[in-house]
Amino acid sequence: MTTERNGAHWETTAIDGPVCGRLSEDIEADIVIVGGGLTGTRTALGLAEHGVKVVVLEGKSIGWGASGRSGGQCNPIWRKTPDELRARLGSACGDRLIETTLGSADALFADIETYGIHCDAEQTGWVQASHCGPATADLERLATAWNADGADIKLLDRAATRAATGSTEYDFALFHPRGGHVQPLSLTRGFARKAIEFGAVIYEQSPATSARRADGKWRVATAGGSVRADQVILTTNAYTDDLWPKLRQTLYPMVSIALATKPLSGNLQKTILPDAVTISDTRRAIYFARYDRDRRLIFGCVGSDDTNPAAFGGVGRLTRGLHKVFPQLDDTGIETTWAGRIGVTPEMMPHLHEPEPGVLAALGFSGRGIAMTSVMARTLVRKALGGSEDELPFPITPVSPIPFHAITTAALPLGPPAMALRDTLDTLFARK
Ligand SMILES: Cc1cc2nc3c(=O)[nH]c(=O)nc-3n(C[C@H](O)[C@H](O)[C@H](O)COP(=O)(O)OP(=O)(O)OC[C@H]3O[C@@H](n4cnc5c(N)ncnc54)[C@H](O)[C@@H]3O)c2cc1C
User: Fold this and answer.
1) What value does the mean pLDDT take over residues 83-112?
2) Domains and CATH numbers, the chain
3) In the chain, N or C: fewer CB atoms in 10 Å?
């Protein structure tokens, strides 16, 4: 079956995906997963390892969604402090989430090692850089709070920040030594291949069109067939359609756009991210950068249209951002630009739902999916195998549509240019 392309740079350097057919018959399974991104494939792998008969239905190709377009940065903390998490989730669930979060990056890189996934993984650390004075104060507060709970975040002064990034754009940053980066499409395909080795069955180009209860089981149908199973797990994130009522309205499908330069010369590599750290900054329109395996620089920011990175001036903002952060790049050519959807929840934390007995849904990673989809996948496996909610790091919450979702979503494309303007004003008027 031909792979459905998503236009991202990662398609040119990824390992091969598994060979999967289209669902064309009625079959039985213990659990059916809808969505073949990082969440779905890692969950399938965990379940298959436990001997569960698991089927994955992917509407396009494995990794076609955000997972195969991602910046691939493993950013292993939340935007909230541990105390804010405890206040929101209760102290027991908050403690579980904090502990899991602190181990999330090491767990991901250990998975990659254990399963032998060739995804150009480098655990070289993540630099979280401040673009203005108030953001510096926020980052200091975040680091102090997480370090009090056992993180090992370092505060970088102006000289250290500039040395780590190779950019004079930033005067302060946090350094998260456990962070790193992966080839996200290879990671997703690697999880899928490993899941198949353990007995999972994956179908591509098989969008699920309905999920209904019948004779004590769930029946998930596609155009060509169906899967009858005891449980359904929905892992469709920002590409969620109307398969499950109101699920799509629980998050905003924000857009992120990215580019890949041509491979940088050895001299440029010495001045730009010289230790191959990843970087993301505190702008509302978030600039992020990292190297790929051939030392192309991958640079991204928020965008307006997931099918057209140039919409609303996106590519212009992207390339201006690239040259602002790394002016030494000069005329280094750009090979590819692409766009994809990020599932953002109002509180910037993922949601775990159980809308009916036997149905789980996990989505809304709010730009932290590389580390956190694996955390969620382990949670889904635990719950699906009969674990109680008291053991989970995420609370199970009702499917609550965001008020005025349709109007806000329609206005989303206008957001990035406005965010970029606010960021520029910050850098002009808010002291560094
Ligand atoms: C450009 C970009 C840059 C990013 N950078 C980073 C980063 O650096 N670090 C980070 O942590 N996160 C980043 N993210 C976010 C991260 O990639 C996501 O959080 C993560 O990949 C989500 O994985 P997922 O499996 O939940 O969803 P997805 O990978 O989006 O998978 C969902 C899948 O569900 C399928 N689907 C939907 N409906 C159906 C249906 N009815 N039937 C069958 N299949 C269906 C879709 O085809 C899709 O393949 C970025 C995202 C983008 C777009």
Assistant:
1) 97
2) 9-70+185-250+347-395 (3.50.50.60), 126-177+252-344+405-432 (3.30.9.10)
3) N
Q: Per residue in 255-271, pLDDT tens?
A: 999 999 999 999 999 99
Count of residues in the chain: 432
% helix / strand / coil in the chain, to the nearest 5? 40, 25, 40
State the angle between helix axes of 104-114 and 369-384 in degrees (0 to 180), rounded to the nearest 10. Answer: 80
Phi, psi for 302 (deg, rounded to 5)? -75, 155
- The confidence band for 1, taking pLDDT boundaries of 50, 70 and 90, is low
Q: How far is CA 427 from CA 207, 237, 242, 431, in A?
A: 45, 33, 41, 7
Q: Which of 236, 247, 291, 337 to mutate to test the pocket of ligand 1 (most atoms within 8 A of CB)?
A: 236
pTM of the entire predicted model = 0.97
Which atom of ligand 1 is nearest the CA belonging to 8?
A: 1
Tell whether the torsion through CA atoms of 227, 228, 233 and 237 is positive or negative.
positive
Q: Which ligand 1 atom minimizes the distance to the CA of 241?
A: 38
Kindly provide the residue ranges of all beta strands, DSSP E only, lying in 35-76, ordered along the sequence: 54-57, 73-74
In this structure, the residues whose C-beta lies within 6 A of any atom of ligand 1 are: 34-40, 57-60, 64-67, 69-73, 75, 207-208, 235-239, 241, 243, 256, 258, 288, 300, 340-342, 365, 367-371, 373
Ligand 1 center to 161 CA (angstroms):
31
- The residue among 297, 298, 301, 300 whose CA lies nearest residue 271 is 297
Q: By mean pLDDT, which of 36-40, 81-85, 221-225, 415-419 is the weakest?
A: 415-419
Counting ligand 1 atoms within 8 A of each CB, the residue from 370, 372, 376, 378 with the most, and so the one to mutate, is 370
pLDDT tens per residue, range 369-425: 999 999 999 999 999 999 999 999 999 999 999 999 999 999 999 999 999 999 999
Longest dimension (CA), the chain: 66
Contact 377, 46 (CB under 8 A): yes
